[in-house]
Every structure is written in C-alpha cells, then in structure tokens.
Design brief:
Helix 4 packs across helix 5. A hairpin with a 2-residue loop joins strand 11 and strand 12. Helix content is 36%, strand content 25%.
C-alpha cells in the first residue's frame, strides 16, 4: 500500500507539470516519467550541507514539493517509486551498482536504487530518475539497444540481473541491477555510507544535473557543463552570484528557499572542491571528461569543439 496521501500526490503531480493522474499503463508511465525527470533535479545538496535524513519517502516528497529540490539516486527514486505506486503502477525497487561493468562481479557494494515497473499492456520498464544524465523516458526492459531522445543505451542480461550501458556522453559506464526485489530498508546502510563517508563521491563533490533530449546539463562544484552530440561546453562560475543564478535559472532550485547561509556554505564547498581538483583554475578535467575521452579513443572519434557555456 502507498503511504502517499491523495492530496499530496496531486500536489506532486502539479509540481512536475501534470494536471491530472494518468492511467497506470505504458502511456501513463511515459507521461509521468518524462515529467518527473524533466522537473525534479538530480542533486546532492542535502549531503553537501550535512542535512541528510533517513530514506523516508513522505519527508523526501516534501523536499521535492518545496523549493524546487530533488535529491541523489536513493532519494529521487524513492520519491518516484511512491508516486508511481500511488498512481496504481506495479513498481519494485532493485539493488544496483553504478560503475564499471565488472563492479558487481568484484562484489562492490550497492550504490544505486533501480526501479522496475510492470505495465499491463507493454510489460516491464526501467524507471530511472536517479542517474543524473537521464533517460527522460522509461526504458523497456528487454535485451538490446534502447533510445530516449538522441541518446542510445543498451540493456543486457548479466549475473542474475541486468546491465544497462550508459550512452557515450555519460560520466559512468552503466549500472547493474538485480532480479530480486528489494525493500527500502535494504538501502539504509548504503544511504548512510554514501551520504556521510569521506570517500563517498557525493560527500567529496557537489553535483546538480538535468537531462534533455539532446544534451545533459551538469553543475559539478563550480563548473557548469553541457554535453551531447556536437556539444562540449564548460564554464567556471566566477562568484556566489553566478552560482546562485545557475541553481535558480538553469535547475529551477529556489535559492530564496535555500537561504543565504546555506547558499554560502554550498558555494564555499564548491570553491574548495574545485581548487582541490584542478591545479590550474581555468582548466577543467573531471572524471566525466576522462571517461568520455576514453570512449572516444576506443571508437577513434575526435572530441567536439570546445565552446564557452
């Protein structure tokens, strides 16, 4: 049973731009999924502020409703899960591992929550709001290539589960997720580790992302990036005012709701992280860029022309 009150459900639908509840079928799933991923940002601001809470879907929904916020994978997929469930969809959580394809075989711990939705008319889909770089659309859970917008990914059976390969402009290789359903409690220890451990990527660096049909917008510390076919733009934000403007205008995060003190803490974090990562302040070299460079070399392709965002 869903714990989402009907009035709260309708407010959440309005938050993502839907005036009414869609039918719990494949068409309705596509409608809700695209609206949710388009409007709810992937972000780790709570972790950066030291404000992480337990994975309580009701409280996470309130965060999404107030101030244009979202969350990282465990958080936003928890909200998407409870929304879909409240609309009558059959949806399951699955434990996943984002990273190298060999990560699951090596026994690396869970770092992702995947969602599988079973529709009555078109079968099973991957619903995914917590990968940062899309997809905007749910992906049919069948082996082979799948597309959303201009981006192609590939799904394969692997080791009592599935492997989803990221598109060539992504920052990670893909993720593995299990066949077995998981409960919310199964993610509690992993959420604590990822949101508090010093070696967690979410603790180490601020990130906000928003996918589009043909590009991905990313704020990583104080570097604003745009990636996609023929697009490679980078801009280092010069000051707190530019940082606030990007959060507000590009990601629709309500800076006033954040408040001046929290905004200042986020900006100072971003500055420290940027300075620690880059020896030369005007040269950007992130893990995402390194990953794309490796994939281009493997395919014999040149990097797109660099431009200023």
């Amino acid at each position: 049973m869903s714990s989402l009150d009907p009035d709260v459900r309708d407010r959440l639908l309005r938050r993502i731009g839907l005036a009414s509840a869609p039918a719990p079928d494949a068409v309705g799933l596509r409608q809700v999924h695209r609206a949710f991923v388009s409007r709810v940002p992937y972000e780790n601001l709570a972790i950066q502020l030291g404000e992480t809470e337990a994975l309580d879907p009701v409280r996470l929904v309130q965060r999404v409703l107030l101030g244009g916020r979202g969350g990282y994978c465990f958080e936003v997929n928890s909200v998407l899960h409870v929304l879909l469930e409240s609309l009558g969809f059959a949806v399951e959580r699955r434990q996943g591992i984002v990273g190298a394809r060999e990560a699951h075989a090596r026994g690396e711990p869970t770092n992702h929550m995947a969602l599988v939705v079973d529709t009555p008319d078109e079968g099973r889909f991957i619903a995914e709001a917590g990968w940062g770089e899309g997809p905007l659309d749910p992906l049919a859970l069948v082996e082979g290539p799948v597309t959303s917008g201009v981006f192609e990914r590939r799904i394969a059976r692997e080791r009592e589960g599935w492997w989803l390969t990221q598109h060539e402009f992504g920052a990670t290789a893909g993720f593995h997720f299990a066949d077995a359903p998981a409960t919310l409690d199964d993610f509690a220890a992993h959420h604590l580790r990822l949101s508090t451990a010093p070696d967690s990527v979410f603790v180490a660096g601020l990130i906000v992302q928003r996918p589009f049909d043909d590009r991905i917008l990313t704020l990583r510390s104080r570097t604003l990036a745009l990636d996609g076919p023929g697009v490679y733009e980078r801009r280092i934000l010069p000051n707190r005012e530019a940082f606030a403007s990007v959060l507000q205008e590009r990601f629709e995060i309500d800076v006033a709701a954040l408040g001046s003190d929290r905004l200042e803490r986020l900006w100072q974090n971003a500055v420290r992280q940027h300075d620690a990562r880059h020896r030369y302040p005007n040269w950007v070299y992130t893990g995402a860029r390194a990953w794309r460079a490796r994939r281009r070399r493997a395919k014999g392709r040149a990097r797109p022309t660099r431009a200023s965002a």
